[in-house]
From TrEMBL:
InterPro entries: Nuclease_put_TT1808, Restrct_endonuc-II-like, Uma2
PANTHER family attached to this UniProt entry: GLR1098 PROTEIN, RESTRICTION ENDONUCLEASE DOMAIN-CONTAINING PROTEIN-RELATED
Designated name of the protein: Uma2 family endonuclease
Organism: Oceanobacillus profundus
UniProt xrefs under Pfam families: Uma2
Keyword terms: Endonuclease, Hydrolase, Nuclease
GO molecular function: endonuclease activity
Record domain Putative restriction endonuclease: where: 13-183
Length: 190
């Protein structure tokens, strides 16, 4: 079994043929290798996941930290031929019919991406556009260097509006849950 090369167009079927330890994402058929996350990245991920998981105990929605694949179907693509396969840092799914053993097939309700120097452009532009197009209701971009979070919510027009910006001294009201607030002091307390 050969490792993927970055010079061709790939689909979800290709992704399924690769060894499980190959960490990649596919955006519009283009391959992006994933670097190992930093310690600070993992501390932020762990604290966000802890707060979300504690809230979701006993509720229908489920939260998943990376690695957890999300396959987005755009423009009525055949499911096996999707050219968009992501591994968000945190994924929340409320429609359990979208779940299988590998991850989520279709748009999750919420996605959180924690930026690193190598992923900033991809997360802010390419993934942003795909999450919006697929109908992800809430998309967070966490910037560890600035200790800031940009929150995008899907509007009635099916587009993300202007982001709400939060600093490390604030709490975020999660829009998909009326009674959940995330404390950023603890998220950025590394």
């Amino acid at each position: 079994m050969s490792l993927p090369k970055e010079d061709r167009i790939y689909t979800y079927n290709d992704y399924l043929s690769w060894p499980e330890d190959v960490r990649v994402e596919i955006i519009d058929g283009r391959l992006y290798m994933q670097a190992a996350p930093s310690r600070i990245h993992q501390e932020i991920l762990s604290e966000l996941h802890r707060q979300l998981a504690n809230y979701l105990v006993g509720k229908a929605c489920k939260v998943y930290p990376a690695p957890f694949e999300v396959v987005l179907y755009l423009d009525e693509e055949d499911k096996d031929d999707s050219r968009n396969v992501f591994e968000p840092d945190i994924t929340i799914v409320c429609d359990t019919s979208k779940l299988d053993d590998a991850g989520c097939k279709g748009a999750p309700n919420m996605v959180i991406e924690i930026l690193s120097p190598s992923t900033g452009r991809k997360d802010k532009l390419e993934k942003f556009n795909k999450y919006e197009q697929a109908g992800v209701q809430e998309y967070w971009i966490v910037e560890p260097q600035e200790k800031m979070v940009s929150v995008f919510t899907l509007e009635e027009s099916q587009n993300y509006g202007r982001p709400s910006l939060y600093s490390d001294e604030e709490e975020i009201q999660v829009s998909i849950f009326d009674d959940l607030r995330i404390d950023l002091k603890t998220v950025f307390s590394y």
